[in-house]
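User: Hi! Is it possible to get a structure for several chains at once, not just one? Here's what I have:
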Amino acid sequence: MILDLTTYAAFFLMTAASFGIMALGLNLQWGQTGLFNVGVAGMAAIGAYASALLTTPPVAGRVGGYELPIIAGWLGAMVAAGLIATIIGAVTLRLRADYLAITTFGIAIVIQLVAVNVEWLSGGPFGMAFIPRPFASLQEYPLAFNLANLGLVGAVLVIVYLALDRLTRGPWGRVLRAIREDETAAASLGKNARLFRLQAFVVGCMIIGLGGAIQAHAIGFIAPENYLSALTFQVWAMLIVGGAGNNLGALVGAIAVWGLWSASSGLVSELLPAGMQARGAPLQLVVIGTMIAAILVLRPRGLLAEQIAISRFLAKSAK
Amino acid sequence: MNPPSLLTVEGLVAGYEPGIPIVRGVSVRVDASEIVVVLGPNGAGKSTLVKAVAGLVPKSTGKVLLDGVDITELPAHLMVRNGLAFVPQTDNVFTTMSVADNLALAVAILPKAVRLRGMDEMFVLFPDLAEKRSLAAGRLSGGQRQMLAVARALMVKPKLLALDEPSAGLSPKLVELVFARLVDIRKSGVSILLVEQNARAALSIGDRAYVLADGENRHEGQSASLWSDPRIAKLYLGAGGSAEVPAS
Amino acid sequence: MTLQFLVDGLLMGGLIGLGAIGVTLTYAILRFANFAHGEFITWGAYSTLVVAGAIGWMGGQTAGTLGPFSVGWPVLVAGLIAMLLTGLLALALDYILFRQLRARGNAIIMVMASFGASMALRSLIEFAFTAEPKYFSRDIQIAIPIGAGVRITADQVLMLAITSMLVVAVHLAMTRTTIGRSMRAVSENPTLARVTGVNVEAVIRTTWIAGGALACAAGIMSGITVQVRPFMGFDLLLPLFAAAILGGIGSVPGAVIGGLIVGLSEAVAVPVVGANFRAAVAFLLLIAVLLVRPTGLFGGRNDP
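Assistant: Yes, the chains can be modeled jointly so their relative placement is included. Here is the combined structure:
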């Protein structure tokens, strides 16, 4: 029993950690730089599919399948996400925050469309299977398997966290925050604001892509329907709930929201009569969606305090 | 016993942010059929004062009475129903709507019980606007826009017309024109509260004036006496514009 | 190439236009991009189904059809009722959620909240009705040739007629009535509107009700011509935003023309790129507008 609980806890924390990685990437974009990225699911998809293409066995009628080691997949995921983010960012980052939101939203939809329809690239609606799982040799020992994976993902999380911490405390972070507050002033200091914003966007997307790849390998298979707007919303919810707009808040939020998600899933299946079990998933979304809206209204604290400066900046730039 | 004032502002404290007042206890008074001017250097709180009276800036203390009615807490959009019409300094016409629509909007809001000047009357008063009635207000010249802004406010037959620096951005000739109009308006029985940076022009048409500084009353009196007071002229009125003072 | 795409394009464009009117007004008057607008479309369609079913049940008859159309009077009556109900839904959502956030003046939080509301509303529908598509009618309609290689069904003619009437009605309301002028005033300059005597709160309420009602009409049309499913409104969000931005935020004629452009573009592109990539067309149009002329066709200002 204890063993089962520990196994489950390890699995839970590992998943929360993978979301935490995504939340860190998003926080770099939003918390540090004021970029409103509503296309998180798209970037996660790119990371997941890139890694899968590199590490899975070959499949007829589809590219990829190079059976490379997992680490190569993860690095490939970051590169792919970074490349696509560079192209997108170069074109769209000059847009105002809410137009950027709509645009990134559209990009995620297009990415999902490609994932569903371009079968020679993505495997179509059925996605890709046989994605190698780390420590696969331990699969018969659930406790060890989950603990090992938790250790791995946790280690990656720590590395990402520390790297971001170093970056944001340093001169690069200061420039980002200066640009977030007042772009004109920052520009007058000779800093090319657009370049810095692009860097933040690309690095953030690379981290989100890495998170997507990690999740793909944790489960072992991916399908386009994993990358709908619900994923974007989950990660945003983590930032909002975590509240502080800083990296620690993002991790706290990841655990809290993932916890709520899992709990509500369990609760919903308990409460619903047998015949209605299939309807549990949407009900979960109702709960989460309502909760987020409620938090935004009732206790926006940290996130809002951090962003008051941004909203003043946006209000000024909108005149 | 003097007849009660049309507008009484008593000890008004107002500002955009609570706890940071810009107007710090100002009192002014406007009587029937008079033009009262509010002057002062930049940052004195003149604009904030008139905006607070109009209900656009939150007030923390003080009272505003219009014709005996306490309008201190009245929401901005109900001011016109109580006889107070305000002309802001900038963005004072709807540029995407036609001249006629701008005027129609002003009037339509009011209940029918209030007697209204017809649009035709307004076009007689402002013939320039008549020719352009279907034109989008954004296509008017600066002076015409100012006229439209004033016309819009007059459409509701206010008891008190409040204006925030109507001379801003206008050439001296246009300033003369606008101010001459204001005199006509006063003659028709409407009182005017005029906040101005252009002290020379304003004092030439004003009956009385208040001078504000740092959000407080500093001086007040008849226009003529303020005009000739050397202390005030030196401190506050300095470069009030290059227009010759027209005889009022 | 035949001109058949015109029929699909105009129909689609008309219904996108109706939805986009609500989006553009909300954006201009309430100053945020409402991601929940798609759910008004979805709720509108489902409400109509439910009310029509109730009417049919009360009337004790199976829903007879009117003439050559696939829908009967219960649907039409239900549609009107549903438009009112959807307008009230929009108002309720504002009251519970957006109004609380408005005072803070942070558009981004409002967009986030609308995203959450969208998720909750859509999932409620999915929970109540399941994800299985529903239909107003199972009748197959005969398409009648009208020349130039174009065929059109009676339903499609009805939809085009109703869309045109609604658009004309909205245009007249915006240009000839006090409330219409008030809305245009608030959309341009809320402070000046207040000073002119406009009750901005009343205008905001009207905006929600009108936006919701028009979205409902769009939903009914989409439901009749295609199907009713929980994601129907959400899948229209991208075309709606594209149309509203293309037409210029705040412009009702712009939203309609933007909708027509998006609809026709999709209809032209689909034979080439396949129906699956419909949404990509709207996206490309959106990007093009934002990069070349962000104020849109009729937008007078650079920001809502």
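The longest helix of chain C spans residues 73-102. The interface with chain B takes residues 178, 181-182, 184-185, 188-189, 191-200, 250, 300 of chain C (CB under 8 Å).

User: Great, thank you!
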